[in-house]
Amino acid sequence: MSVYSISSIEVKDWDAYEDYMKKVPSIIEKYGGKYIVRGGEIYSDNTSWEPKRIVILEFPTLENLNNFRDSEDYKPVAAIRLRASTSESFVVEGV
Fold first, then answer.
1. How many domains does the chain have?
2. Contact at 8 Å (CB) between 82 and 7?
3. What's the mean pLDDT in 1-20?
4. Which secondary structure element, helix H or strand E, spans residue 5, and what is its range?
5. Is residue 46 a part of any domain in this protein?
6. Per-residue pLDDT at 49
7. CATH number of the domain that 22 lies in?
8. Per-residue pLDDT tens for 51-94?
9. What range defines the domain where residue 84 resides?
């Protein structure tokens, strides 16, 4: 069953974050993941939640997602993201 990583991201250093955005797609793909949403206009729909940037990733399994997050490939790239932004994320199973 597919799983989706849903993140609300506030970018604090766009130069560094752009470096992250260049490096991460090939690593996501290597572990079977793909972007469903990567930024884009956010429209309010009767909520007080005001995210700055939304990213949704799809992976074929939770194992694929965890392997991506824990990979030696991703660790130095994740460090860029952690310096350049703050985020809140959760994972949900999909149909």
1. 1
2. no
3. 96
4. strand 3-11
5. no
6. 84
7. 3.30.70.100
8. 889 999 999 999 999 999 999 999 999 999 999 999 999 999 99
9. 3-41+51-93
Q: What six digits make up the tokens of 35?
A: 């972007």
Give the separation between CA 33 and CA 14, rounded to whole angstroms: 24
Please give the DSSP secondary-structure letter assigned to residue 78. H
CB contact burial 19-36 (16+ within 10 A = b; e otherwise): ebbeebeeebeebbbeee
DSSP letter string, 13-74: -HHHHHHHHHHHHHHHHHTT-EEEEES------S-S---SEEEEEEESSHHHHHHHHH-TTT
> What is the CB-side half-sphere exposure of residue 89 using CA atoms within 13 A?
15
Instruction: Tell me: pLDDT of 50 over 90.
Output: no
pLDDT score for 42? 86
**HSE (side-chain half, CA atoms, 13 Å) at 78:** 11
35 belongs to a structural domain: yes
Above 90 in pLDDT, residue 41?
no
